[in-house]
Design goal:
It comes from Gossypium davidsonii. This protein has about 325 residues and is mostly helical. It is about 75% helix and about 0% strand.
Length: about 325
């Protein structure tokens, strides 16, 4: 009853559960899970917090037996089956400055969900079932915030490493997480550039994912400029490495990377061309409006001029949305 009324009390004893040997061991697991269930009845977020911080690392350890893994999975399945669990947990993804699913736990979950085909076990399908929701909680947060930028760098590092792991399903999933990190924090582009040559397999996996699923990922990127610059730098690195006569394996990787870089560059160039075409239409429309309706607010002109001059989609969108289109529309009604 105490845990149901004050579920946070369980979080306060987490350090003891981790450090003191009397709370360690497979025989203590049922009691700890029972405690987490009681706390979860009072606050579902506390349940997932305890599962991700205390129990999931056990699954990632070498000594976790099937019985323990089954109990740990039963708990998270029970938590996620609660009414409105997804909404509650995503909204509570950050609790008092701490994440319900920290990056280290998310890495464990990703690796047990996407193991090598030879390492799959009966529990793998159960991890695949819970993964999307727990992943959503693990990646939830305020885009552009200081905390989210810090988390995205941590996530980038382990996801980038996993992308070059050589396990196809893990590599593909990790590459998608890397792309998410790039969108959260432009610093990740700079980290990627520094790591490019020493982690060519991982870079190829990320570029492949971007290239093959361009429509899906490009729609989520808030700006394409950092990607455009990064791909340009990668192409220079590829050209230099291939001309220097790298060994056959690396030569093949550079060629594959350059293939994807060229494809992405083409997509970026076409998108840039579409923006310029739109800008031209805006200019034509605005000039027509000026002839018929000369009393347009000068601030609208300055915003349009700046956006068109810099080919900045965000600025252009803002200019279009703030301009007095009631005045401009008179062009068509006159």
């Amino acid at each position: 009853m105490v845990l149901r009324r004050k579920p946070d009390a369980l979080i306060s004893v987490l350090p003891k559960l981790r450090e003191e040997s009397k709370y360690q061991g497979q025989d203590k697991l049922p009691v700890i899970i029972w405690m987490i269930i009681q706390a979860s009845r009072g606050d579902l977020a506390v349940g997932l917090y305890m599962w991700a911080h205390h129990l999931l690392p056990i699954v990632g350890g070498k000594n976790c037996n099937p019985q323990s893994r089954d109990l740990i999975l039963q708990l998270v399945e029970w938590i996620l089956s609660a009414s409105k669990a997804r909404t509650i947990l995503v909204n509570a993804a950050v609790r008092k400055g701490e994440r319900l699913v920290p990056p280290a736990s998310f890495e464990i979950l990703m690796r047990v969900t996407f193991p090598a085909s030879s390492s799959r076990v009966k529990a793998t399908e159960r991890f695949e079932a819970i993964y999307p929701t727990v992943k959503e909680v693990g990646l939830a947060g305020s885009h552009g915030s200081k905390a989210m930028k810090q988390v995205s760098v941590q996530i980038f590092h382990f996801a980038f490493k996993a992308a070059g792991d050589g396990t196809p399903e893990l590599s593909k999933e990790a590459a998608g997480i890397v792309i998410w990190s790039l969108n959260q924090n432009a610093e990740c582009y700079r980290i990627w550039e520094k790591a490019y040559l020493d982690n060519l397999e991982a870079s190829v996996a990320v570029l492949r994912r971007l290239s093959e699923d361009w429509k899906q990922h490009s729609a989520k990127l808030t700006t394409l400029d950092p990607l455009r610059e990064t791909v340009k730098n990668f192409r220079n690195k590829n050209e230099k490495a291939m001309s220097n006569g790298a060994d056959a394996v690396r030569q093949s990787l550079f060629q594959e990377a350059d293939k994807y870089c060229k494809h992405i560059s083409g997509k970026l160039s076409r998108g840039h061309g579409c923006l310029k075409a739109l800008a031209f239409l805006v200019v034509a429309f605005a000039v027509g409006a000026a002839v018929v309706t000369p009393n347009i607010d000068p601030s609208d002109w300055s915003k349009l001029s700046e956006a068109i001059g810099t080919a900045d989609w965000d600025k252009l969108s803002e200019a279009l949305s703030t301009a007095d289109w009631n005045k401009l529309s008179k062009v068509f009604s006159s």
